[in-house]
Write a structure and sequence with these properties.
single chain; alpha+beta; Rossmann fold; Non-ribosomal Peptide Synthetase Peptidyl Carrier Protein, Chain A; 4 domains; 5-stranded antiparallel β-sheet; 4-stranded mixed β-sheet
Length: 586
């Protein structure tokens, strides 16, 4: 599907689309029988499925896959595996590079041998020049060559690949005058080294079999060096979106697909500058700004239409920033509490941490009523709202009267939370839920991995299920130290019903999707026949050798059998308001 918002669009892709794009990528990357590919991206992601599974399958070369949950928990395993298997082609979105850099230690760099890497794909989300350059600089000591870094441009509507850079060359970075780019939509090279410049990485030429052009708001082709919307056409490009003719019609200009991406062309090469649509990127996912605003509007005391959410790439930190621009007015004594409530609600509902709250007089809009987000972002970058800006972390700052508790593991846990959540230590209290501070399922797994490294313990996901706060984690770890896990969550006993008591029960739906049964009829048949559905644990569910232990060792299982549903991926995540990403990890 295209995007990861509340209304994802199913992209129609044929075998011809896929094979055409795979052939183009093979030629563009010069993949051959001497290559082997290794990746951690999930197969529900186009880069993982098409780029690192179908492509090597099509040309018959070795491929290695790391489970995405394993990577998030221990990012260094990625390059451990490259070293072990001598993989020649691997890759990651930008946040994966940043995650690895944050977790790598000196001992890791001493053990990695990356001389085998010929291509390191960098795509699937906006590419940070600072993160890319830091990665290349740090990994040079491990034998990584800068010419292997391969910044690319792609999208689901093209199957995957759109533009690849020239092989065997270091990435080319444009240093541009920010004012000229934003105000005039023109490219002007700049040698400045301050905030008045912007660094953008060149993503190369269209892959074989694909045409690309840049147009203005009227659909007219613009000259090279002028920013416009990127359009593509080719045999690999989708014919539209499934069961959505309205969106399909709006997405094409004759045979050209409107990508919604903004960029410019220089010497036939494409550089992406941003999105035409109001999309915000956070940790490899993209969200529509108006969806986030809709979540804010549901907070009690918030009047709809009074806020605007904007995102931009902070080149210095190499990450995305999110700001809430607000015209809401609250009594002074209630203001921080209300905005803390709003930010907590967004954190818990979407897993998006808001970095800044800017109090403004009015929200700039076009004559047609559309929010001019670029005006707000540029005003922020010029410090126009400096005196009326609150840091998101300051809103959660603990009161002086609230002392930090000192459990045996409290300091270690708090330091790990602070690093993973990218928050100051003093903003994290012992009783504040992880999710309310901007935690996500991905970040929770990072905490688990960091705790294992720091404490030299093997911890199960039971810790994440049972413990929402630092205090609960501290108590849980103390119980482990004493030899048994902490039973935090007590399950209420079922109410006994006397034989004479009658109570109406409404059965409103029945799926009966059980082991060896896909529906109620099959389940009933199994019951009548007394069929036993217990079996050995399938190898594709988990590695028994890794988790089995004959004794009741914590983090292991002494059981080698179980009952398993054949199609766990039929789980209706949307019904339970669970994102596809979280469902995959579950």
């Amino acid at each position: 599907s295209s995007g990861s918002t509340s209304t994802p669009k199913g992209v129609i892709l044929t075998h011809d689309n896929l094979l055409t794009n795979i052939e183009g990528m093979v030629r563009g990357a010069n993949l051959n029988q001497d290559d082997s590919m290794l990746a951690w991206m999930p197969y529900h992601h186009d880069m993982g499925l098409i780029g690192f599974h179908l492509t090597p399958t099509a040309i018959g070369i070795n491929q290695y896959n790391i489970h995405p949950l394993t990577f998030v928990k221990r990012p260094t395993l990625w390059l451990d595996s490259v070293t072990k298997h001598k993989a020649t082609v691997t890759g990651s979105p930008n946040f994966g590079y940043r995650l690895l850099l944050n977790r790598a230690k000196p001992k890791n760099y001493m053990t990695w041998d990356l001389r085998s890497i010929r291509l390191l794909f960098n795509g699937a989300e906006p590419i940070s020049v600072s993160v890319m350059e830091e990665f290349m600089a740090e990994l040079q000591q491990c034998g990584f060559g800068k010419t292997a870094m391969f910044p690319v441009y792609g999208m689901a509507e093209a199957c995957l690949g759109v533009c690849f850079p020239t092989l065997d060359r270091e990435p080319f970075v444009h240093s541009l005058d920010r004012e000229t780019l934003v105000r005039e939509n023109k490219v002007k090279e700049s040698k400045r080294t301050n905030e008045n410049r912007i660094l953008l990485v060149d993503e190369g030429y269209p892959i074989p079999g694909l045409d690309i052009r840049v147009v203005d708001e009227f659909g007219e082709i613009v000259p090279e060096g002028v920013v416009g919307e990127i359009q593509i056409r080719g045999r690999n490009v989708t014919s539209g979106y499934i069961n959505n003719p309205e969106v399909t019609n709006k997405s094409f200009q004759e045979e050209w697909l409107k990508t919604g991406d903004m960029g410019f062309m220089v010497n036939g090469r494409i550089t992406i500058t941003g999105r035409l649509k109001d999309i915000i990127f956070v940790n490899g996912q993209n969200y529509y700004a108006h969806d986030i605003e809709g979540v804010i509007d549901t907070v009690e005391g918030v009047k709809p239409g009074k806020v605007a959410v904007c995102g931009w790439h902070d080149e210095e930190e190499g990450k995305e920033k999110v700001a809430l621009f607000s015209t809401l007015r609250f009594p002074e004594e209630e203001m921080k509490g209300m905005y803390r409530k709003i930010l907590s609600h967004v954190n818990e509902a979407l897993g998006i941490p808001i970095d800044y709250v800017c109090l403004i007089r009015s929200i700039p809009k076009t004559t047609s009523g559309k929010v001019q987000r670029f005006v707000l972002v540029e005003g922020f970058k010029k410090n126009e709202f400096k005196d009326e800006t609150l840091l998101g972390t300051d809103l959660f700052m603990m009161k002086e009267k609230e002392p930090m508790k000192m459990g045996e593991y409290t300091n270690v846990i708090r330091e790990i939370w602070a690093k993973v959540l990218e928050r100051p230590l003093e903003t994290i209290s012992d009783n504040q839920p992880f999710m309310s501070l901007g935690g996500t399922s991905i970040k929770a797994v990072q905490v688990l991995g960091a705790l294992e490294d720091e404490l030299s313990l093997s911890l199960s996901h039971d810790l994440l299920i049972r413990c929402r706060t630092i205090q609960e984690m501290d108590e849980y770890l103390l119980q482990i130290e004493q030899g048994y896990p902490s039973p935090h969550k007590e399950i209420a006993a079922a109410r006994e019903i006397s034989h004479g008591e009658e109570e109406e029960i409404a059965v409103i739906g029945m799926a009966c999707r059980f082991p060896d049964a896909a529906n109620p009829d099959e389940f009933w048949k199994n019951l009548l026949e007394g069929k036993c559905s217990i079996q050995d644990i399938p190898a594709n569910r988990w590695n028994r050798d890794e988790y089995y232990h004959p004794s009741r060792e914590f983090g292991k299982t002494y059981c080698q059998k179980g009952a398993f549903i054949d199609t766990p991926y039929d789980f209706d995540a949307n019904l339970f308001h669970i994102s596809g990403e979280e469902a995959a990890i579950m």
